[in-house]
Each structure stands twice: as structure tokens, then as C-alpha cells.
Amino acid sequence: MVLHLYIDWLSQPCRAVAMLLMDNNIEHQVHEVSFMKKETQSAAYKEVNPAGKLPSIVDDDFHLGESHTIMRYLCTSRNLPDHYYPNDIKQRAKVDYWLDWHHLNLRHGSLCLIKANFFGPIKQLPQQTIDELRKEGDNVLKVALGFMDETLGKNNYIAGGNQISIADIALICEVTALPVAGASCEDYPNVQAWLKRTSTEIKSWDQVNMVFNQLLASRKK
Amino acid sequence: MVLHLYVDWLSQPCRAVGMLLMENNVEHQVHDVKIMSGETRTTDYKKVNPVGKVPAIVDDDFHLGESHTIMRYICASRNLPDHYYPNDIKQRARVDYWLDWHHMNLRFGSSRLIKANFFGPIHKFPQQTIDESRKEGEDVLKSSLTFMEETLGKSNYIAGGNQLSIADIALASEVAMLPISGASCEGYPSVQAWLKRISTEIKSWPQVNATLDQFLASKDK
């Protein structure tokens, strides 16, 4: 049975899962679900994922959410090349570390700024809320990018090793979304070099980022 | 070589790791690091964990942070009983799901409220910051506990299965901490029943929670 993938192309964790699937030629059927049109809140979608979040997969009736969980599951169930999620206990722990770190560091900083600078005006959030989100986002993002820059000064890939892992894929999708939040990794040369390097290594990069790139282009006008 | 564990017993993720080690008689040396006294920000501690967070372990010179990563690593490296972090691909994915979900849901809601209601007065945060943190914390905590309640209405353990996993340990540590911010799981009977079950099944629960229990008792005076 084919794997069903539920995503919004504008979502960072969705793009990460899609890249892993496409780079490994894993047969899947894409179902586009729009977060902004609140399609994730429909009764039909809640049957796919009761938490109403993206991405989700349904694999032969097995329902799964959370992008990092989905990527780990794909690596093991499809027996993907070891470098994505190594079997070596210590190397795997390093990949797990960055996946776990991501949620409340890079992801959180980025989300606070996206809420403040992108959704703030759209949803007409109170100025107090926008200010607090922006302050927290700026602080958390600065620390997160600083830590990534230090790490990537010593390693080509975020979890060490000689090839890309699912931690690189997760983090790179978030870093490329920073312009939507009005942020960037301009001041972090190692992060920029890593971004350039890993985006060329992901074969499906352009295809997966197509909708997102259109959004970025339209915002610049 | 013995495993070195760096913890603050008042920290939920620290208690989760402490319990996993003690339940399984994994030999370790505890190093008490007090967050509130600034001990995680010293140069010495940064050599243990460059991000200055607890918990951290040093296992035969291998340094690791992030409680979920540490627990996965201990399960694999010490060959712990399967139910903690199952080898079955789908059952493991269910445990991963709840570990990943935790960061931006239960953990996030709980820590927003701790920031507003506990640290707010101590650190004298601006009222605006306290109000925003409290509002966000209440919303996120409510939806998190509701989702857990639905799940635990159908299952004795958060990831399904017949025995506790590291996901139960992580989440139970957080739920047990809710009183510190004035929150609780009253109104969520399945969550309450689960907490009681987990805290009785974990033999080291009273020992690991001793510092927190004393702290809560002193707050009530």
C-alpha cells in the first residue's frame, strides 16, 4: 500500500519529511492541507491526525505525526542509508540531540518571530503580544544560531559525521524559512556555508521548496 | 567507567533521567547543579555541556544533553528492558511521538506558567511579560492535558502498550511539577489515574521527587 503524506508546502517540518521521501524515491501520495485556511481543523483531517497538526503520514493504516518521529520511522521502516539516522549508538545520540534541541531553540525562536512579524499583522494580534513574541524570538534565535555556528565551525554536518542526517534536513528547512520571519543567518558564516552545502546535496530541494519560494518572491514585491 | 549525571532535582527532565537510571540500577555518580544559583552558567559546567543546560551525562568521555536523547541512549547502550523504548518499529514510533509532542505542548505550557507564576515575581519580570506568558501557558496546557486525557482514556500508558515507556516517565515528571506554577491536572481524571499508576510503578519515584516534594511543601506554608 502506498504511503499517504499530509502536508502544507509552506510548513518547515512538512518540507523536511517530503525531502527525505523524495530523495530516497519512496513512493507516496501527497495530500495538500492548508494550515492558513484552517483545513487542519476539519473533522476529516482530525481522523488523519487527532492533534490537527502537519505533517502526518498514514502508512498502511498506521497514523503518525511529528516530523522528527516520522523521519525516524521512515529511516527504519524503509531501511534508508545509515547516514540519515545512524545505527551506531553514539552517532545516533548526536542526531537525536539536535532533533530534540531544535524544538525549543531554533524552531521556537523562528516561530515566535513568524507569529510576531508574519501572523501578527494578518491576525491583528495585540501590540503587547507582538512585542513580547518579537523580544523572545530575537533572543532565542540569536543563541540558537550562535550555537549552530560554533558547531558548524568544527563539523560539516550538524551532528558531526561525513554525510547529511535527518537533523540537518530538519534544521535546514527552518533556517531557510527565517526570511518569512524577517530574520536571517547573515551574521553566521558557518551556518550559511552549511546551508549552501546541504541544500545542494538534497536532490529534491528545488522541487520541495517551490511553493515556499513563490511565497518569498511575492513578499518581496 | 562510571556514568556521570549532572542534575538539578527541581528540574523535570532531570528527574526523568534520574528515575530511568535508578529503576534499572545503572551505576552512576550524581553531580548536583543548581539552576537558580547560576551553577549551569559557570565555565566548569560549560565544559560538561556547552549549552549550559541540565540534565547532562558524561559516559566514558561521551558528553550528552537533552533528556529524551539521554534516555534513548541509556536504553540502547545499557540494553534496558524493551518496554522503555521498544524495538518494534511502530511501537517505538508511538513513544517517539509523545517525546517529540512533549516539547512544544505539555512542557511548553508548563514552563510558560512556571515563568509567569513562579519566576515572574522572583526575577521581577515586566507585567506585560508575565501576562503574555500566563495566557499562552494556560491555553497550551489546557489543550495538552485534554489531548492526554483523551489518549489515557483508551490506554494505561501514553504510547499504548502494556507497560510504561520513557514517554510516560518524561510526561509524568512534568505533570507532577504543575503545582509549582499553581496549575494541576484536576479536571482530567484519566491523567490523574495515570499519574498515580506511574508514580507507584516507578520504585525510585519517592527518592527522585524528594527535593521537589520538600519544595512544594515549603511553598504551601
Q: Summarize this, please?
A:
The complex is a heterodimer of chains A (221) and B (221). Chain A has 221 residues and is an alpha+beta fold.
Structure report:
The complex is a heterodimer of chains A (221) and B (221). Chain A is α+β, with helices and mostly antiparallel strands. Chain A has two domains: 3-77, Glutaredoxin; 89-206, Up-down Bundle (Glutathione S-transferase Yfyf (Class Pi), Chain A, domain 2). In chain A, 58% of the residues lie in helices and 8% in strands. Chain A contains nine helices and four strands, in the order βαβαββααααααα. A four-stranded mixed sheet of chain A has the order 2-1-3-4, with helices on one face. Chain A starts with a strand and ends with a helix. The model of chain A has no long low-confidence stretch (mean pLDDT 96). With 221 residues, chain B is α+β, with helices and mostly antiparallel strands. Chain B folds into two domains: 3-77, Glutaredoxin; 89-220, Up-down Bundle (Glutathione S-transferase Yfyf (Class Pi), Chain A, domain 2), CATH 1.20.1050.10. Chain B contains ten helices and four strands; from the N terminus they run βαβαββαααααααα. Chain B has a four-stranded mixed sheet with strand order 2-1-3-4, covered by helices on one side. In chain B, strand 1, helix 1 and strand 2 form a beta-alpha-beta unit. In chain B, helix 5 packs antiparallel against helix 6 and helix 6 (127-152) packs across helix 8. The radius of gyration of chain B is 17 Å and the shape is globular. Chain B starts with a strand and ends with a helix. The model of chain B has no long low-confidence stretch (mean pLDDT 96). At the A-B interface, strand 4, helix 3, helix 4 and helix 5 of A face strand 4, helix 3, helix 4 and helix 6 of B. Chain B: GO terms for molecular function: glutathione transferase activity. Chain B: Pfam families: GST_C, GST_N_2. Chain B: One of its GO terms (biological process) is glutathione metabolic process.
